[in-house]
Each structure stands twice: as C-alpha cells, then as structure tokens.
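Aim 2 progress update. The chain analyzed this quarter is reproduced below.
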Amino acid sequence: MNRLLSLFTPPPPIEPMKGSPEETAASFKRWQTRILLSTMLGYILFYFVRKNISFAMPGLGRELGITKADLGLFLTLHGVIYGLSRFVNGALADRMNARALMTTGLVLCAAMNFGFGASSAVMAMGVFWMLNGWVQGMGFPPCARLMAHWFEPKELATKQSIWNTSHSIGAGLVAILCGYLAMSGWRYCFYVPAALALIGSVVLWITLRDTPPSLGLPEVKGTEGSAPPDADKEAHRRFIRKAVYGNRVIWMLALANFFVYIVRYGVLDWGPTFLHEAKHIELKIAGWMMAAFECSGVVGMLIAGWATDRVFGGRGARTCVFYMIGASLAMLALWGLDSSSRTVNTALLCVAGFFIYGPQALIGIAVANLATKRGAATAAGFTGLVGYFSTIYTGWGMGKVVDTTGWNAGLLSIIAASVLGTAFFLAAWGSRAHGYEEGKAGA
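Predicted structure tokens:
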C-alpha cells in the first residue's frame, strides 16, 4: 500500500543536469513540448469518455423511455459532482504527482463508461455517470499544475491556450465519432471511447513527468522561489487562503465562469438533440456541425491567448469582455434567425464557438497566474467548482424548460447568461497580470 501511495507523491528534486547552459535550455525546451503534447492527448481522451453521452441521449431516450428532464438530471449530477471533484483534486494536485493522478483518472473514467454502456437500469446508469463525474475531476487539476510549473507567466496565456484546444479537439472528435457510432446503437458511444481511453492512459504514463526540478532542470524564469519545497502543510494552507479564497478577482472570475459554462454546455450538451429535433438534421450531420463549433473554438482560444499576452499584458479578464460580447451577439442571432439552413446554423454555431471558448480558456490561465504555480491547481479547482454548478441549469433545468416551453426559451436563457458573464468580467477589468511578486514577498 505504501508503495502504491508513493506513486502519488511528487518526486523530489534531483541533482541539476550536468552540461552547458545551451544543453540545459535545449533539454528544457524538449520537455516543455513533451509535457504540453502529453497533457493535451490525455485531456482529449478525458473528453472522449465525458461528452460521448450527448450523442447517446436520443437513442437512450427512445429505447428506455427517458424524458429530457431525466436525461438532463444525468448531466446535472455529473456536472455538480465533477465540479466538486475538480475542487477537491485541485487542492490535492498542488501537492501530488501529476503523472500518477492524471493517468489513474483516465483509467477509472474508461471503467465507468464500460459500466454505463453495459447497463439498462436507469439507477445503475445514474450511479456510473455520477462516479464518472468524480474521476473526471482528476484530469484538469494536474494539467493546471504542470502548465504553471513548466511555462513562464509572460507566455502562459499563449501556451495554455494551445493546451486548451484539447477541450475542443476532444469534443469535436468525439462528436464526429459518436455521430456515426450512434447509428449502430447508443452503447457503442461508450464502449469505443472507453477502449481508446485505456490505450491512451498507457501512452500518458510513458510520456508524462512531473515538475522541472524532478528531472534535474531549473524552475521556469519569473517563478523561482514562489513554491518553496520545504513549506509545511499549515504554511501552504495560509498561502491558499490568502492567494485564492481571499482574492476578490479570483471570485469575480469564478462567478463569470458560472455563466460561461451555461453558454458552453448549453450548446455542447443539448446541441445535437436541438439540431436533430428542432432542425430535423440527422445525428451524423449534427456531429459534423458540433465539430465545426469546436473547431472555431480552437481558433478563438489561440487568438484569445495571443491577444492576452501581446495586447492586454497578460490580463485575461480584459480579453474576455470583448469575447463575451461577441458570444452574446452570436447566440442572439441563433435565436433571432428562424432558419433551418444547415449552412446558416453551422455558421452561427462557429461564431458562437469562436467567442465562448476564449473565456473558457482564459479563466484558468488568469487564476493560475494570480495564484502562482504554488496555488494554480487549487485556483483552477475553485473556479471549476463554481463553473460546474451551472449544470444544475444546463442539465436538469434546461431539459425541464425545453420539455415544458420548447427550445426558444432555452436559447433565451443562454443569451441572458452571456450578458451576465460579461458583467463579471468587467468587474475584474482592473486586475493585475499575475501574483508572483506578491507571492515572493509572502513566501
């Protein structure tokens, strides 16, 4: 047991690498690229075993007679539990081995998907999907920890926006895959992604490592001394209370995240069903349309990261204001234009995806910089917790609204969330770019 637990303990720093500064810099660069690509692959596969349910819902509802409100309850319970898990695992991830935490989470997610796909009882499905929500929370926190440890604050928005494309790549690929798998039966939407996740977990274990000092490499520039290795648990708690829970800007960004997630998951979770039922579009075509939504999100994230570093001096909240205005207008057009054209609806989904994924990426980056690498995972877990409480509405609530009043009211609620999200980003407009200078003073 002690040997097993030791896998989750961060490896201690080792002797610095021997060699010239040029050789050390080249090695650091190679490991940066490896960590970035490994965590992206891992998180893409977390999406394979999370967002597959959206395409299973139409067939699942028909076969088992489950209402939209009941299907929405699956989404709500999964989302709330996932938010709680991200919060708990975020606090743990700042002091754990990221490699072991992320790989274990992906294996357990695959197991929960196999269990869900093999079930026919609604109660059993609910249990498996709630458990999946918990182990899904082992995916993002180790990534937040690694990004803050491997990249400088001045480039974190750009680099983490590249990493954040894994959300859209994963959601887009699983949309296309499950759009076709659903034609053979909804259970395949769980079996095939779970098998791919198991294969990916082996790759993740082989390629991923923890922090630079654990490989004999130096800490990244601008963060030296911000995470003292000998800090005891009480010192760490004091730091977290001040830098995360006592930080007004992090609270504003967390509340903004709540509304960003209403927009994002309102479209992502219900988009396939909306297109199928309201627009009479085949699921395999809806899959490509949702993939287009995700692809435009990739572009939006990359531009948002670049603009934050190059235009707004690392202040992500300012970029988010303009992006949320764009998201509000895109959703307003989707609601106001009563068109059944696949081209028109795909174009509007693309515009919405471009604008909503910018804030989705930048919130995690902003709070990681404000909390420093010493509290990055905790801050990401906290904002994630608040964000995923939105699934109380986007899951059960929206299902109930659509069952009762139709899709029109559902779209209006998403527009309202966009406007409120903009307001909270405006409240964080004057925030600083990062908290490293303050963190050094208080270390």
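The chain has one domain: 23-209+232-442. The chain has 17 helices and no strands. These observations will guide the mutagenesis experiments scheduled for the next reporting period.
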